[in-house]
UniProtKB/TrEMBL annotation:
Listed Gene3D superfamilies: 2.60.120.1440, 2.60.120.200
SMART domains in the record: LamGL (SM00560)
Domain of life where this protein originates: Bacteria
Keywords: Disulfide bond, Membrane, Signal, Transmembrane, Transmembrane helix
Descriptive protein name: Iron dicitrate transport regulator FecR
Domain LamG-like jellyroll fold: 402-560
Length: 571
């Protein structure tokens, strides 16, 4: 049967506007009952609608007050089981209530389609391929899957001046490491194994991470600190096994041989053709390439310890902060800037977010509501934490523009709302952008195309084209600073989402939905609008996390410019 898309769309519009006749009701039932493709199309379209900011659902848009008693969102039949019950319109008839049952049934038929769609999106991340970073598999709230799972045997605690080998995928601080090869060309890396052992690796180094209790060293120098709880942690070098008995020791592996030194405690040395040997505090051995071992002098100064590593890390942080300062000073004078907030001039008692653009315009200062000041990417600067449903920064940005770029440094604690605001205009009128993160971990951007005074079913259809990235976020990123950016080209409608300086999705908006003139006006950073209902009820869309830097440009920045913004701001 040929899918009657146009007829289905027409019937849904009538249903949404509360004008459906009895005959139309029966026809819609017939389509959804007999046509599997129609069922799939219906749920796909309604799930997408669930990603759009339905103003009347939350009562935040005076511009649509003429429809305020109509529930425009029929998606509640396929929402999360944790969702709050929808408020039914007084005009909704029993016929519409019975249709709700049909819609729920149709949703149940094709939930598997949505799961497959999310899987497809996850596989579209650019440059994915084989990864040394442990994957995190969150449960889908929509298919009732079980507890979230992860994988790994260790985590990266710190990196200082690290350069990676060409065959090594770059790894960030906080990443969980799965079994496999770990190699650096230079620098220092602190690895904490899940057993409790801490290893500081100095490059050039090549190590195989095998289990939470075992690593094999092919090249490099490392210092291991093994508390009592991790006793038994072992390092293998060729056929030599070094078993820790609760100690601190160093190992250096080079083409000339292997050097084992005990700085505190005791280790056992195991070789297939030799008897077990024990080394205690202050003892060392050198094992030559041919296999013979001889005593040596302990030289702890050759092995970087945690105290020295932390000192080097502080120096690196100061260097990176100053690098960002220099870049930020240049950015403030960019003529394309619409608004810029560096979060670097705040005192704890101040409740204004000062504009950082140069020249300074106090009209662009934001009003902090509820959000608390916290340390930013570096201790030398601040950030704002958004936790409570009312937390936000209110801004008023005048003017009309064409293309746009929105960019921010964000630390997400969790995505526990349907919509997690980055930057949302109050009324979402014609030409106004919305930028947020869905609970699926997808970056969402749209510009409203529909005229503010649009009336009629056909006009209401032409609202906007949301652009969703593949899921970029998973629980392993919780509490870590990430850089997000989206560019919108008003000439051709091309929209690009970026994650940590790299593009993750490109999409061209349909020609008839491209908005040539954009504007902002009243808006909120980290939340959406202010209550307009008499009961002051509002949707919970605040970001659960922190913002460190936020910029809006009247231009679609190039991929190189986004990359530079990330590299100069990376903590």
């Amino acid at each position: 049967m040929r899918l009657p898309i146009e007829e289905l769309e027409s019937l849904l519009i009538e249903w949404e506007s509360g004008t459906m006749t009895t005959d139309q009701t029966e026809r819609l039932r017939e389509i959804l009952r007999d046509d599997a493709e129609a069922q799939k199309y219906f749920v796909r379209s309604q799930m997408l609608t669930a990603a759009l900011a339905s103003e009347n659902e939350t009562g935040l848009s005076p511009s649509l007050s003429h429809d305020e008693d109509v529930d425009l969102d029929p998606t509640k039949s396929v929402r999360s089981k944790n969702a709050q019950p929808a408020k039914t319109s007084p005009r909704r008839t029993r016929t519409s209530s019975r249709l709700f049952v049909w819609f729920a049934a149709a949703a149940a038929v094709v939930i598997c389609v949505q799961a497959a769609r999310l899987l497809y999106l996850e596989n579209q991340l650019e440059g994915r391929g084989a990864s040394r970073i442990a994957t995190v598999i969150p449960p889908s709230e929509r298919d009732g899957a079980g507890e979230a799972t992860s994988s790994g045997i260790a985590i990266i605690k710190s990196l200082v001046d690290v350069t990676w080998e060409s065959d090594q995928e770059p790894i960030d601080v906080g990443d969980a490491l799965s079994p496999g090869r770990f190699s650096i060309a230079s620098g220092l890396a602190q690895i904490e194994f899940f057993c409790g052992a801490t290893v500081i690796v100095e490059g050039p180094a090549e190590i195989d991470l095998e289990t939470p209790m075992l690593a094999r060293v092919h090249q490099g120098r490392l210092r291991a600190q093994v508390p009592t709880a991790a006793r038994g942690f072992s390092i293998d070098v060729a056929d030599l096994k070094v078993v820790d008995l609760g100690t601190e020791f160093g190992i250096s592996v080079s083409p000339e041989g292997t050097d084992v030194q005990v700085f505190d405690g005791e280790v056992e040395l195991h070789q297939p053709t030799h008897e077990k040997r024990t080394l205690t505090t202050g003892q060392a051995i050198v094992r030559r390439e041919q296999g013979e071992m001889q005593d040596a002098q302990v030289s702890p100064e050759r092995f970087v310890d945690i105290v020295a590593l932390e000192s080097k890390q502080r120096e690196q942080e100061v260097t990176r902060f100053r690098r960002w300062q220099s870049y930020s000073e240049k950015l403030r004078r960019d003529e394309r800037l619409i608004a810029y907030y560096a979060f670097d001039q705040q005192e704890p008692w101040q409740r204004q977010l000062q504009s950082s653009a140069d020249p300074y315009d106090e009209e662009l200062d934001g009003a902090i509501v509820g959000a608390n000041q916290v340390p930013g990417r570096w201790n030398q600067k601040g950030a704002l934490e958004f936790k409570k449903p009312g937390d936000r920064v209110r801004v008023q940005i005048p003017g009309q523009f064409e293309s746009l770029t929105l960019a921010a440094w964000v630390k997400i604690d969790s995505l526990d709302r349907w919509y997690n605001s980055l930057f949302l205009t109050d009324h979402y009128n014609q030409g106004e952008p919305h930028w947020q993160i869905l609970d699926t971990g997808q970056l969402f951007f749209s510009v409203r195309h529909k005229a503010d005074d649009a009336r009629g079913p056909q006009a209401r259809k032409q609202t906007h084209q949301p652009v969703l990235s593949p899921p970029f976020w998973n629980p392993s990123l919780s509490g870590r600073w990430i850089h997000l950016a989206t560019t919108y080209n008003a000439q051709n409608g091309q929209t690009i989402h970026y994650f940590n300086g790299k593009p993750i999705h490109r999409e061209s908006i349909a020609e008839d939905l491209v908005v040539k003139r954009t504007k902002i006006g009243a808006a909120s950073i980290g939340n959406w609008s202010i209550p307009t209902r008499k009961d002051a009820e509002f949707a919970i869309r605040n970001l659960n996390g922190s913002l460190d830097e936020f910029a809006v440009f009247a231009d679609a920045l190039s991929a190189q410019e986004i990359q530079e913004m990330y590299l100069h701001g990376k903590p």
